[in-house]
Design a protein that fits this description.
The complex is a heterodimer of chains A (about 180) and B (about 450). With about 180 residues, chain A is mainly alpha-helical. Chain A has 9 helices and no strands. Classes of the chains: A mainly alpha (about 180), B alpha+beta (about 450).
Chain lengths: ~180, ~450
């Protein structure tokens, strides 16, 4: 079944087509939802909500250039909406944190060697705000201005949230590095 | 010196001295900046690479839960908004028609059929009466031909013999006069002769007593042609039908009935769309005012149905139509984001430029009323409702007005040009926003 046919059938409510679409992209959507939450139950809820939105929106969407990107976008938006429902409050920018961190090449080298599951673990353990901005900036590629508009925060708040998330990442990488160093030694 | 000019001068001096000056930056600052930027971009690269195309196993029963949720959502209550609107409009149309239809037609009237009727209050048919009418110039006689076509003359009298094969029965001829076709020239009136067979015991009078019925609005002096429908046995009219003084009040001792002749019509209507996109209620998405119609594509509506006369001036119109139009449109879309827990009203940020090609193919059911105004010109009100082909989820309903602008008759067909304007009541095309098209057009209607 071609993508066009799949879309058409989903638009007409064909259950088999919906299942096919689900099978194709459920893994990707689940991964997206997991990145934005710190517990599996919330991830499941967001996952379910995302697919409900996908099946409802596909009926009314006239043109879908890339089905994968379209599904991905809905998954991300659903994750963001889930955070909004939590009434998340992000701390305003504290200039003291402005230049504290610097990820050196060593940190980045360690990061490069890590598997994605371990990075995911670090990301999941971050506070909600850090995790949100970390994902939006580093993974989805939004600018701070866009993140500010998305989350109704200032640009500087977005920057500070990212800085703090990088600090946590740095701290974790340093721990891994120390452990690595200790092993070597 | 004035204060303003002093300030201006001060600004000039400071600008020269301060703005254009420079200071040596800290050593290694550029490298630091480069390092930070490259670290940032490298971090981005690593993270996006690590997370690219990754997937996780979804929960086991998630799909079933999703399907259940979707099917529960689809179970709408019987009285949905669309149905309520339809019901209200139909109720209004019925109430309006009750005001317009004459009272006489709402009371039950005589109907003569093949079963044994009790003769209505027939008028005396003896020749004396006829003579009387003839001398007064009010009589109209009917003459039969072999093909049972009766023609009338203004003055003149011909007689027929009534013949019934079955001696036990007596034929009571009746003449039915009505204006059956309000689209036709008002000069024409069809005359239909019927016969009711009753048992001879019920009526031993050899003088046949024709039953004459007439619908309101018939002017017998204008009768030009009549057709007689033979009943089961061959019959002839033994005496001209009695003709009352038609100028008498029709409510006096005479009952009337109206014979309806339904008309078929087909209609073709090219459409010009004034497409309008509206924000949905409570929507997350919002449209800007900046909408551009990229192409004004014409549509068309074609269909046919039935015109059922309810009175001499009012007709019920029912039909089935196919409607198609397409259009390209460009607009800006904004998505809302709620404030984060601080009670702020939603912020709308720019979602993107949308270029959309909208195409609709609909099957519509149509019901309406046409009211004659003057000399066969009429106005009409109609209501369409239907579904998009291939999807029962896309619905549309329109209410429209039209009137007959010009018409001519060719053979058995009447061709009518009607300007139409319709307004969309519901048009569901998207979850968050709806497309509404106000359709303006002319239609060509052919009626038989």
């Amino acid at each position: 079944m071609t993508t066009k046919t799949l879309i058409k059938k989903c638009q007409s409510g064909d259950a088999k087509a919906q299942k096919k679409l689900y099978d194709l992209y459920s893994g990707m959507v689940m991964f997206v939802c997991s990145r934005y939450t710190n517990d599996s139950e919330s991830a499941k809820d967001i996952f379910q909500e995302a697919f409900i939105r996908i099946f409802e929106s596909i009926v009314s969407t006239k043109k879908i250039d890339s089905l994968k990107n379209w599904v991905y976008t809905i998954a991300v938006r659903t994750s963001i909406d889930a955070h909004r429902k939590k009434n998340l409050t992000l701390a305003e920018h504290n200039p003291d944190y402005g230049n504290v961190y610097t990820l050196t090449d060593e940190h980045l080298n360690i990061l490069d060697r890590l598997e994605y599951q371990e990075i995911m673990e670090v990301v999941r353990n971050m506070p909600d705000g850090y995790r949100l901005v970390f994902n939006l900036y580093l993974v989805e590629g939004y600018s701070h201005k866009e993140i500010g508009e998305l989350l109704d925060i200032s640009e500087s708040t977005s920057r500070s949230q990212l800085t703090r998330s990088k600090q946590l990442l740095k701290k974790h990488l340093e721990e891994i590095g120390v452990r690595g160093y200790e092993k070597a030694v | 010196m004035r204060r303003q000019s002093k300030i201006k001068l001060l600004r000039e001096i400071l600008s020269k001295k301060i703005r254009n000056n420079s200071e040596t930056p800290p050593h290694g600052a550029f490298m630091q900046i480069q390092k930070t930027l490259s670290a940032d971009s490298r971090l981005k690269e690593i993270i996006s690479e690590k997370f690219k195309n990754k997937s996780l196993k979804p929960p086991l029963d998630a799909f079933e839960a999703i399907q259940t949720h979707l099917s529960n959502k689809e179970k709408m209550p019987f009285w949905s908004r669309h149905k309520v609107q339809t019901a209200v409009i139909l109720l209004v149309i019925v109430l309006m028609s009750l005001l317009i239809i004459p009272r006489e037609l709402r009371t039950s009237s005589l109907s003569i059929s093949g079963d044994t009727p009790s003769p209505p209050q027939a008028v005396d048919t003896n020749r004396q009466s006829l003579e009387k009418y003839k001398s007064e110039g009010d009589t109209i006689s009917v003459s039969g031909t072999e093909d049972h076509t009766l023609t009338t003359t203004d003055i003149g009298q011909q007689f027929f013999v009534s013949h019934v094969e079955d001696a036990d029965k007596t034929v009571i001829p009746s003449i039915e006069l009505n204006n059956t076709d309000s689209n036709d020239s008002p000069d024409k009136t069809h005359l239909t002769s019927k016969a009711s067979v009753v048992h001879s015991q019920a009526n031993n009078n050899s003088d046949l007593r024709p039953i004459v019925t007439q619908s309101p609005g018939v002017d017998l002096t204008r009768v030009q042609k009549a057709k007689m429908k033979p009943y089961r046995e061959s019959i002839y009219i033994s005496s001209p039908p009695l003709l009352t003084d038609w100028r008498e009040d029709s409510s006096k001792n005479v009952t009337y009935f109206q014979k309806r002749i339904n008309k078929f019509f087909i209609e073709v209507q090219p459409l010009y769309n004034q497409l309008m996109i509206e924000n949905g209620t409570g929507s997350v998405l919002r449209l800007s005012d900046n909408q551009q119609n990229l192409s004004q594509k014409l549509g068309f509506k074609v269909g046919g149905g039935l015109l059922i006369p309810l009175s001499d001036k009012l007709r019920l119109k029912t039909g089935l139509y196919y409607l198609q139009f397409s259009k390209q449109i460009e607009y800006n879309l904004f998505r809302s984001i709620q404030g984060l827990g601080n009670g702020q009203s939603p912020l709308f940020y720019f979602e993107g430029d949308i270029k959309e090609s909208i195409e609709s193919k609909l099957i519509l059911g149509n019901i309406g009323f046409e009211l004659d105004l003057y000399k066969n010109h009429y106005i009409g009100i109609e209501y369409d409702a239907g579904y998009s082909i291939g999807s029962t989820k896309t619905r549309a309903s329109n209410i429209g007005l039209y009137f007959s602008l010009a018409q001519f008759k060719l053979g058995k067909f009447r061709y009518i040009v009607e300007p139409h304007v319709s307004h969309t009541l519901t048009s569901s095309s998207a979850d968050f926003y709806s497309f509404r098209s106000n359709l303006v057009g002319f239609s060509l209607k052919v009626v038989r």
